[in-house]
Predict the 3D structure of the following.
Amino acid sequence: MSGVSVTKDAGDAGDAVPASGDLVVLSCVNKHFGALHVLQDIDLTIARGEVVVVIGPSGSGKSTLCRTINRLETIDSGAITIDGKALPQEGRELARLRADVGMVFQSFNLFAHKTVLENVTLGQLKVRKTDKKTAEEKARALLDRVGVGSQADKYPAQLSGGQQQRVAIARALAMDPKVMLFDEPTSALDPEMINEVLEVMQQLARDGMTMVVVTHEMGFARSAANRVVFMADGRIVEEATPDEFFNNPRSDRAKDFLSKILHH
Amino acid sequence: MFDFLDSGQYDLLGAFWVTVQLTLYSAIGSLIWGTLLVGMRVSPVPLMRSFGTGYVNVVRNTPLTIIVIGCSLGLSQTLGINLGADNFKDIGFRLAVLGLTAYTGTFVCEALRSGINTVPVGQAEAARALGLSFTQVLRLIVLPQAFRSAVTPLANVLIALTKNTTVAAAIGVGEAALLMKEMVENEAQALFTVFGVFAFGFIVLTLPTGLLLGWVSKRVAVKR
């Protein structure tokens, strides 16, 4: 299935060529919420350096899929491996693995009682055991990179949504993750703030970060994705390159979905 | 009207000082014990969760008098556990602190649990996603925010604790209520004055507590 992945020829695509090896592998994953079968026999392989965008209607299971990858949601059956290692049970092992998987949430989830700088240094200090000076230098560099360096000493509530989400990206990057998960990162943002977050994500994609992005931003999917995964009713209905998917969707479900979002 | 106070027969300030000490030691003890209890109540380990829940529900619903007298008659006099003290005064004081802590800890636990419920789930999820362990998530992210929103209910617990120290009179600890009992017997003609003096003494202790902590709760509130 990873054979579908195609290099995106966007600008300096040199780094974006998926390196050899599969980083995240989901095989035959099933999950129920009560009677609702939210993930049905999901098989998905994400190669190193690949940017996979997951789209689909609400309730199709795409957020749940994203959250199973770092086990914020448990699965009922199937297997998930990250960099060759199976997801362990809750505990020290799982915490270690989560540290290598960056996550960005729809509602930002910055630590409300800590400053922006503290948000970005916390994981380095407490999980990576970096010394304080190094952690702060790195945090400031990352905050500059996402364009909120001047906000370092403020509290999250003093920032706009777009700024908060960029801090959240910096917080995840501070752990030097192998893969970044984005769970609808722009869905809670005012329209004029969406682009500032998408630009940071575009840059990350260009730098060769492995990314799984659940989003409704079709523009981002077109321009940054190596592969689009279309989900509906708990299943992966279609997987293709963005060009293929948006111009020639194969399944009726995808055609229907695209006709609703692209023409109005 | 207040002339019996000048007789030098009664050490009013000394008695209230014991009340203050009982309150302080028990407050520190129950803050620690209550925090541990709430940690157990929200822990992922079923055994700890059921211990926390069971303990809180049993102890919270047991009259404090029974707990304090149980500490004295049961622990000290029957089992010989005197908490390292060797004279009657210290033994009684330490047992009272133990009983008050065991009891008040359950209320601290529940106040903190209500505080934890004000912390959005996403905060803990983000912390777990960074690779923090359960205890780190609790210690660094959840509890600091829970404490800030639990200041007002914790102030209630502290005020109740201050007044509950009077139960220590039942095991002979020389705090305010024991002195009042003595004065009521000796100064029956000034009964209402005696009541008034002690009521005033407790208000002096508790009113500033409530006002101060009300101010603190506004200062430390987490902005979202």
Q: What stands out?
A: Chain B has ten helices and no strands. The radius of gyration of chain B is 20 Å.
